[in-house]
Amino acid sequence: MASELAIKGGPKAVQTPVGDMFTWPIITEEDEQAVLDVLRTGRMSAWDVTLEFEKEFAAWHGVTHALAFNTGTAALQAAFFACGLGYRDELIGPSMTYWASCLPAFTLGATIVFAETDPETLCIDPKDIEHRITKRTKVIVAVHYAGHPCEMDAIMDIAKRHGVKVVEDVSHAHGGLYKGRLLGTIGHVGAMSIMSGKALPAGEGGMLITNDARIWQRATAFGHYERTAEVLKGTAWERFAGLPMGACKNRMHQCSSAVGRVQLRHYRDRMVEIQKAMNYFWDLLEGVPGLRAHRPSRNSGSTMGGWYAPHGIYRAEEIGSLPIDTFVEAVNAEGVNIHAGANLLMHLHPVLNELDVYGHGKPTRLANATRDVLQPKGSLPRTETIPTGCFSIPWFKHYRPRIIEEHALAFRKVCLNAKELL
Questions:
Q1: HSE-CB of 173 using CA atoms within 13 angstroms
Q2: Cα 355 vs. chain centroid, distance in angstroms?
Q3: pLDDT, one tens digit for every residue, the chain (422 residues)
Q4: Pairwise CA distance, residues 402 & 288, whole Å
């Protein structure tokens, strides 16, 4: 009997041309005109358009302050500084994340301690944070990984009891909700990338949002020296205005600000359609052995925002312990494009364990520490299982049922016929 699997000679599940289903960002004449207005008036290095973008971004999130940056990395670095992270302090964050979620701590003379990642949410596990807090801990970074909200109530409770700040990294989860509250507005400060590949794209850039005036002032002072005369007026730091405290020039390019304003205007509608499409995909796969949806429960009040870098959870033991690489190869043969795993595990990377960045004569992670903070292989056992326990899925930008159904069929076929691949 002929196999149904494409990798064994059967027909591919995906037959319909996808067209612009995966094209992102969506750029229209409105975006183009906004950029041309900046170019033709020569305001590329000014900040009038950026100020308007900040006001609109703050209003969209219902917060008092928004501050624009040239990258999400710069926004996170400034957030760490604004929360008081400095020489020989410690930051706690997840190991499985994009490096900018934690690595800027080195530039402030601080070090990094990694906590376990929950294999179901792919976010930092609150149950593994508290025992890692020391008198040197200043910041906990809550990365809403692949769009999934962190357990913010538990994290904020830990932070409050220990007097540390929480920085939400919202780079994967713009517009997402945790129990009805917008991500980025729950911690002391939210920071995020809004580069062109993100769910909310503005070209290259970052944003910081907060209701804390002191955090906003410190973040501005770190790398927005042109604006400090007004921002620091009447504060203890007023005499330092005019030079960037962090020796950084962090302002957003106004072409990015112009695009960001247009994208923000349309983002909620685009996000809602993405959510409809992605939830439909997972609804089609409900109950399929070997697969678990990476999304909050429907009645939790939590959502995945624009569902950036969407993933699924793999349960090999339910389909004969089929290796994840074999699973991915078979799904891709059906006309889909996915990969196994997720971001590099930073606690195992040589930059975090061996590299002397600034010439201290020892690895920078140790040079910036008051104790041995290295975490070798085996130190985060649950996190270390995740590369074989998750996989990417298609990021649908439109609700087009036929195309979504064909892509879901690819996963269903492989899981239901896994014995042919063993």
A1: 30
A2: 25
A3: 467 999 999 999 999 999 999 999 999 999 999 999 999 999 999 999 999 999 999 999 999 999 999 999 999 999 999 999 999 999 999 999 999 999 999 999 999 999 999 999 999 999 999 999 999 999 999 999 999 999 999 999 999 999 999 999 999 999 999 999 999 999 999 999 999 999 999 999 999 999 999 999 999 999 999 999 999 999 999 999 999 999 999 999 999 999 999 999 999 999 999 999 999 999 999 999 999 999 999 899 999 999 999 999 999 999 999 999 999 999 999 999 999 999 999 999 999 999 999 999 999 999 999 999 999 999 999 999 999 999 999 999 999 999 999 999 999 999 999 999 99
A4: 19
- What CATH superfamily classification does 6-25+267-342+384-421 receive? Aspartate Aminotransferase, domain 1 (3.90.1150.10)
Both tokens of residue 11? 């027909």
Return the exposure string of 81-117: e unless at least 16 CB atoms fall within 10 Å of the residue's CB, then b: bbbebeeebbbbbbbbbbebbbbbbbbbebbbbbbbb
* Cα angle 206, 208, 210; round to 5: 165
Distance (Å, whole) CA 35 – CA 255: 5
d(CA 115, CA 18): 40
In eight-state DSSP terms, residue 86 is -
In three-state secondary structure terms, 241 is coil
The rounded distance, in Å, linking the Cα atoms of 144 and 258 is 26
Which residue, among 265, 246, 287, 269, has the nearest Cα to 75 in the 3D structure?
246
As given in the structure block, the two tokens for residue 379 are 């130190």
Q: Which residues of 330-361 are buried (b: 16+ CB within 10 A; e: fewer)?
A: bbbbbbbebebbbbebbbbeeebbeeeeeeee
| DSSP H helices in 86-243 | 152-162, 213-223, 228-231
Phi, psi of 48 (to 5 degrees): -70, -45
Three-state DSSP at 191 gives strand
Q: From CA 305, how far away is CA 193, in angstroms rounded?
A: 14
Domain 29-262 has CATH 3.40.640.10: yes
Helix (H), strand (E) counts: the chain? 11, 12
Q: What tokens were used for 191?
A: 């920071």
Domain boundaries of the chain, sorted by first residue:
6-25+267-342+384-421, 29-262
